[in-house]
Amino acid sequence: MKWKWPRTALGWKEALSKYIYVVLVIVAGVVLLLMPGGERDSPQAESPAREEAFDLEAFEEKLERALSQVEGAGETKVVLTLDGGSRQVLARNQDQERDGGSSNTVVTVGKGSGQQEVVPLQTVAPQFRGALVVCPGGEDPQVRLKLIGAVAALTGLGSDRISVCAGG
């Protein structure tokens, strides 16, 4: 015995077979909308990449802890001054023109919704201008020489820009 389709089901069967691809696209779209999007669009996911700015206070604290370990120095306090701030080197696109000239443009990336963002290649830390180290052992010439050498090695400053003073 062969099974027969009811009349309303036959109408749906014909419509479904006629528009099968449209129905498949709609179903695929609904499935994609219901899938979790992940963390890629959240601003928190971009934060670590942007936190490359130079933190002067943290660097001073780290330097204080390191210099306090120098024999005879005691507990140190460090003050650093900077020439300007940190800066970013941006990606650039240089085009050669037929007449021998060239144009130089900053490379940008579209972030959607008409937003553009520049492409940074690297972040350059600021240059140090000078350093002051205050510690109880600052009057001893040997301790002073060790501290000046350590600060010079860590900051790139010359010894003429580093001052070591005795303090209590």
Quick tags:
single chain; 168 residues; alpha+beta; GMP Synthetase, Chain A, domain 3; 3 domains; 3-stranded mixed beta sheet; two-stranded antiparallel ribbon; 5 helices
How would you name the CATH homologous superfamily of the largest domain?
A: ANL, C-terminal domain
Give the percentage of residues in beta strands. Answer: 25-35%
Q: What is the count of helical runs?
A: 5
Give the helices and strands as they follow along the chain.
HHHHEEEEEEEEHE
Query: Which consecutive residue ranges, at least 5 long each, have pLDDT under 50?
Result: 41-51
Question: Which percent range fits the helix content?
Answer: 25-40%
**Number of beta-strand segments:** 9
Give your account of this protein's structure.
There is one protein chain. This protein has 168 residues and is α+β, with helices and mostly antiparallel strands. It is built from five helices and nine strands, in the order ααααββββββββαβ. The longest helix is centred in the N-terminal third of the chain and has 15 residues. About 7% of the residues have low confidence.
Provide a concise account of the structure shown.
By secondary structure, the chain is of the alpha+beta class. It is elongated, with a radius of gyration of 33 Å. The chain has helices at about 5-20, 20-35, 45-50, 55-70, 140-155, and strands at about 75-85, 85-90, 90-95, 100-105, 110, 115-120, 120-125, 125-135, 160-165.
